[in-house]
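Board work, copied verbatim: ATP-dependent protease
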Amino acid sequence: MSLAIVHSRAQVGVEAPCVTVEAHLANGLPSLTLVGLPETAVKESKDRVRSAILTSGFDFPARRITLNLAPADLPKDGGRFDLSIALGILAASGQISADSLDGIECLGELALSGALRPVQGVLPAALAAREAGRALLVPRANAEEASLASGLTVYAAEHLLEVAAHFSGQTPIPAYQAQGLLRQVLPYPDLADVQGQLSAKRGLLIAAAGAHNLLFSGPPGTGKTLLASRLPGLLPPLEEQEALEVAAIQSVASQSPLEHWPQRPFRQPHHSASGPALVGGGSRPQPGEITLAHQGVLFLDELPEFDRKVLEVLREPLESGHIVIARARDRVRFPARFQLVAAMNPCPCGYLGDPGGRCRCTPDQIQRYRGKLSGPLLDRIDLHLTVAREATSLNATPASSENSATVAAEVARARRIQQARQGCANAFLDLTGLRSHCALSAEDQQWLERACERLALSLRAAHRILKVARTLADLESSAAIGRQHLAEALQYRPGSQAG
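↓ predict structure ↓
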């Protein structure tokens, strides 16, 4: 047979579109032509494949070989197509059965010796192969990652000879059995380590229960970072689909998705991070910190120290839950449903309001410092909490009720109420959900409208107050939002204490 077809997968963001590798042999002067919009690494596969076939003891056809990677308008890069190209040539030349290639997809880079090297982005390809109803053959180093896609038949090999023997029927490769040794949940830092700060812990509980964004403000050393790092341990465990989304992003970003499977990510970029580092980018778009924090927590310490233009790019993903990276040749959509937790000092020196009078900042310096944060960004943060300095006690023993397990149980109960009522956390309610699930009595609605008018709060801020109040009601297992819930939610808006 002079024509063979092998199925593989490309990588576009966190998607894995199907690529059909077509190999055709014709009479004429020996040559090898590769078409289908291949980039440099794919073009170089011609030499890798030739050497791998010859060193494995197969014949490289002395004919005119045409290789087509379809669809033709999809850019292909990386060495992930090496194995598919080699199998296509072997099948087209009759050295393996072409019929055996049906119903399976192949990924893998070839060494000159014929050994299979791992590639990145295997999990998205595995999920797509499962959706298409095909099996997947990958290098053994990628097999455990591919097996995260439950229900998918995975074959693992270390050399081209093994793969050829499998497709020729001589020595079938058994389906890979997941080891499961790396899927142990590591313990999160415990909330019991934080001394005092009852109001801040209350804010953490509310933020976790409703997936609300949170801003801590206070002098240095009061535990803002310590509090933020405890938030992932309060959140409910990831569902399987959510865990697969997180693992797929880590796979695309060349990180091991098995290392912390299936835990929520906690990302803490430095304040010197650029815009592309935060939201993603590059000539070949890669996920940024907000995508790596998908289904988890993004912690921005020293918030005003970030470049203002960098912070402004957070506004869209905070609302939509995704980010679109547009380039001349690519337009890639990355998920970014993260929970933002930020921390800042009240002034440049950090000691504004300190009883000891240590602050030496002028009003202009304080205004410039706070002016680095735009109103629209602060408006998208539901909870604004002040973390005050408390008396130092090196031997203080936290109460048993302050540990993460107890708080996480309250959070889980509130989240179950929200899932049963609306199918999502309160922070993700749209306008229709607000009308349906955050209805107020006529008196409470007038009271809230007057309060928002007095404090000059935007309509977006009013909606977020309603969402927080709904979470407070859920924590008390209350079907209706009461005046006390609105009053507490209002306290978490900036400037409300002064009003």
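Residues 429-499 form a domain with the Helicase, Ruva Protein; domain 3 fold (CATH 1.10.8).
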